[in-house]
Amino acid sequence: MNADASKEPTTPDYLKGQPFALVERDGVHYTLLGTAHVSRASVEAVEAAIASGSFDAIAVELDAQRHLALTDPDALSRLDLFQIIREGKTGLVAANLALAAYQRRLAEQLGVEPGAELKAAALLATARGLPLYLIDRNVGTTLKRAWHGLGWWSRSKLMAGMATSLIADEQVEEHEIEKLKQGDMLESSFGEFAASTPVLYEKVIAERDRYMAARLREHGGHGSPARVLAVIGAGHLAGLQKALAEGQENPQNQCQTLDEVPSGSKFPWLTLILAAFLVGGFAWGYYTGGAEFAAKLVLEWVLITGIGGALGCIAAGGHPLSVIGAFLASPVTPLHPALSSGMVSAFIEAWLRKPTYADFLSLRDDTGDWRGWWRNRVARVLVNFFLTNMGTALAVWLAGAKLITSL
Fold it and tell me: 28-35 and 132-134 as β-strands: parallel, antiparallel, unpaired?
């Protein structure tokens, strides 16, 4: 059974004036409460709904990571920076911090913490002893699936947009705030790019609608709570209602499928092509110009790529030994698919300038403006990783072009 807010006489007081939908599935009555992530009224609606005592369980549009970030401010202090670099999660952590910076500007501008209604729902559920269902997909999985589905140009635009959100200090524009009042935090964080990119919309919005519906059905299938309140962004309301009412796929299988992160090609074609290009170029140089000419080509490659990585590290405010590490690693790491110059310099930076406990505690605050990314030692390691890699990547193109012209 579905209903909407147009039936005012039978609408509970806590739902009046709020976007909502009622769905009955497998003996469970679901109340889907659509909220605005920057609205005090949404917080009050959530508080009133839970206080009514009408529900046996509460579901929220959060994953375990975002739930921890909202309810445990000290969670960032327990990050293992070396493990993050070693496991290749630097980009994911930086992306999360970029989203947090965007949310902080919203909070300062509007006086409401983005996601306050989700936090209120989670805390109230715990306080009342109600089961709490975290039904959203891990944000890292969502970002990885979105990234994998984009082409090179779209990825560049996305990175540029994320970088802008890191360094911009100006107020969030009015149309973005309006989008948040009826949409989704992730979608709004990507700005107009999300609306104009069908692949990004599918991964960031539509897939999560289906995922959250499957998670609700998964919990409901155990035969416990009969009345569930699901607190979700208003932008997910229609999609979640449809997926919950009509979905036929086994919910466990559906969640497993939507949790999969497509892997890139296991065969490092780009690395092999670059290696073949360099070896072939050096060999051809030796054949046509002798050992001295070949040595000159190798030296040019080493100097151009090394200087590129070193300049990137310098731009990140790297320690002198980190700069040296970047210089030495940059000529070699483009030929190793599992290693990067940024990884090397970031490891050295983190080792020499060990972040303090205070750096971790202030990480979220410091990354709210671009200067904080260089001031905070944790954030500066992430900046070091990216700028060193960027410098090396640009230098590889320059060195390759120089090799071609020399030959």
Answer: unpaired
As a whole number of angstroms, the distance between CA 236 and CA 61 comes to: 9
Domain that holds residue 45: 8-259
Distance CA 285, CA 292 (A): 9
pTM (2 decimals)?
0.68
Residues whose CB is less than 8 angstroms from the CB of residue 150 and which lie 6 or more positions away in sequence, other chains included? 158, 197, 199, 200
264: in domain: no
Residue-wise burial string across 68-90, b where 16 or more C-beta atoms lie within 10 A, e elsewhere: bbbeeeeebbeeebeebbeeeeb
Contacts of 378 (CB under 8 A, 6+ apart): 79, 81, 355, 359, 360, 363
Q: Is the domain of 195 the same as that of 326?
A: no
Average pLDDT, integer, range 64-70: 80
Residue with tokens 């051809």: 284
Judge whether 31 lies within some domain: yes
Name the nearest CA neighbour of 215 among 190, 188, 250.
250
18 and 75 housed in the same domain: yes
Candidates 242, 215, 250; CA nearest to 230 is: 215
Query: In this structure, what is the dihedral angle of CA atoms 190, 192, 196, 199, given to the nearest 10 degrees?
Result: 10
Q: What is the pLDDT of residues 312-366, one digit of tens each?
A: 999 999 999 999 999 999 999 888 877 889 889 998 998 898 887 677 767 767 7
CA quadruple 86, 358, 62, 382: dihedral positive or negative?
negative
